[in-house]
Amino acid sequence: MNLQGPCSPTPAISRRQLVLAGALAASAPLAWSQPAFPTKALTIIVPFTAGGASDIGARMLATELTKLLGQPVVVDNVAGAGGAIAMQKLIRSPADGYTLLYGGLSESLLIPMINPAVNYKVEDLLPIALVGSSPVVFVTRPDFAANNVDELVEMARKNPGKLSFGSAGIGSFAHVMTEVVKDKARVFMVHIPYRGGSQILTDVISGQIDLGVTTVSNAASMIAAKRVKVLGVSSKKRVSVIKEVPTFAESRALKELEMQVWALMFAPLGTPPAVVSKLNAAINTALELPSIKTLLVKLGAELPGLLSPAQAQAFLQAEQKMYRPVVSRIKPE
Predict the structure, then answer these.
(1) Residue 222: partners with Cβ closer than 8 Å, 6 or more residues away
(2) How far apart are CA 144 and CA 283, in angstroms?
């Protein structure tokens, strides 16, 4: 019996289904030579322990990708050596799309550019999709004399070498981004490297260092409690959770400068294009879900745009070009 008679309404097709259907159509000419994908569980490697921003982002995506791909997607936390152990595990994995890595700016790009001893290069990674980004903020103690980045730059120019900034270590995103700012503003500030970022804001508040360079999400609670003062944010547009804070681009000293801490989903080199296309479509579909968008806002993160695999590769190359001049002067620990 035909229950879908001529007068029955047509079932609604969601945007999620349309995006995935488009990806399947795009890969149809290769279907005769490519096995079905996926037919088993997928793993997303996270280069850090559970509970951090990368882990939260990866688990958020894993939940939705499980629904979209019809197979379990599990998270594997592989911490150690600043992310190098996780990166090496991805590179050694079969190039079949079943092992992915949620990689950030520091471990994916900056660390291998600075320290060849980690035994991997950014060219060893295949970007699938941009999965998030977050601007950095310059924070200081509430009674610090400068109230914005222009005043900070003026102070630094009048007092070369007397101001200090803290980062989570040599080659960390905070270190490298501040070096870019120093070059752009033509100032000298002393870098104080820490073994991780947990102590930085505490030392900013107590006056041990002048500036902390961190993400909006890391500083959110102290900003809300007015324990720190924000001098500027590195995004192109103001951030909703701190909309009163001007961007670097609004300043005279750092005009047009925009920097983001980002995360890309990577696969091993050689992963079949049809598999990469399907993964990209599923990830981009998940990123458009209201639940994920809401969580990104709460984390102080954003998504500048949904990128194709080719666009993700171009994005990574542009980032490499921007940071290379500064990174060339940084010596590994």
Answers:
(1) 139, 201, 205, 228
(2) 43
Please return the burial class of 205, using the count of CB atoms within 10 Å of its CB with bins 0-12, 13-18 and 19+. middle
Domains located in the chain, CATH noted: 15-134+261-327 (3.40.190.150), 136-250 (3.40.190.10)
Which helix (H) or strand (E) is 85 found in, with range? helix 84-92
Please tell me the pTM assigned to this model.
Answer: 0.81
Distance CA 166, CA 33 (A): 53
Distance of CA 50 to the CA centre of its chain: 17
Structure-token pair, residue 69: 């791909």
Per-residue pLDDT of 16-47, as tens digits, reads 444 444 444 444 444 344 568 999 999 999 99
What does the angle CA 87 – CA 47 – CA 69 come to, to the nearest 5 degrees?
85
CA 61, CA 221: separation in Å to the nearest integer? Answer: 25
What whole-number distance in Å separates Cα of residue 171 and Cα of residue 284?
Answer: 30
